[in-house]
Specification:
This protein folds into two domains: 177 residues, no CATH class; 82 residues. 78% of the residues lie in helices and 0% in strands. It contains 13 helices and no strands.
Amino acid sequence: MCRPATVLAFVFVLAVSVPAGAADDLASEAARQLQLAEADLADGAYQRAAESAASAYRLDATLQSALVVQGLALRHLGRDVEARALLVTYRTLRGDLPRDARVGPAILLIDLAEDIRVEPSIIVRAAEASLLTLDTAVARELISYLLIEGGGAGREVQRRGLELLAESLWIDDDQDAARRTWRRLFVEHAEAVVDPELPPPAMTAMAEEQGVARGASSPASSRGTGSNRGFGSTSTRPQAPEAFVLLGSGSAAAAIGFGLAGGSYARGSGVYDDLSTSPTSWDSDIESYRSAFTAERVGIAVGFVGTALLTAGLLRLVADRVEAKKRSFSSGPAQGGAR
């Protein structure tokens, strides 16, 4: 026959262990619901996403990201008041902690839909933040407001809007639309330049569209039309994209290489001083000195490679300019005789 104390101990252990296991089950189910909500949000099943996110938050109130997913889904469903309340609640709960990058642009879009005035520069920054998270749809919504509804924005803001629009289209693999946007950029903004921070394929496409846009106003077509004179001159001709790649990669390699060499030299000098003044630490310090010496040599080699690439890029730029001059001189007499 069991003693009363043994029975009480068993009942106590059972009472404690069951809630703990149940809590773990609730947290696991909440995480699963949130995962389903994120998938539904990405697939455009906004009603299901909102319901799953709400269920996740009911099961686990510490799962603050569920508020974000529910708010984003409700915004797509046109329930802006509820969506904004959820997103602002999330932002308040997080305080100074890192936040979901989707929250700020979503709140901004809701405010714009309510005709709340927002500085164009803030809209640009929000669009840039959306592109960093590859949220291209939100980025394009913000840019659309800049280019269409927010027509009062200055030329610089509109130019940046076109650059971001083309970049978002390229990210979504809509290369034809991206090229058309870059062409519009160079037609409407003569001061625009090719973005050297783009990936090489995108930078090449952008440079090609610069050539197409400005070729329409080349010296051959604009000679004799005073208002367009000089728009397509050799000083504004696009440079070959290979030159940009060489210059960009060369400068980066030179900076990294010589920076590594300088830092390694400083580190090795310090270790060498210790070796010369404290012979007892030879065994422990000699490997550090050899490592610094090797890193210095590697840095110098990388730096020289970068310098060579820079030189090649500069030579390519010069060659392009010379070729452009030859084309302009060769086309001049023929046009003069045709008059």
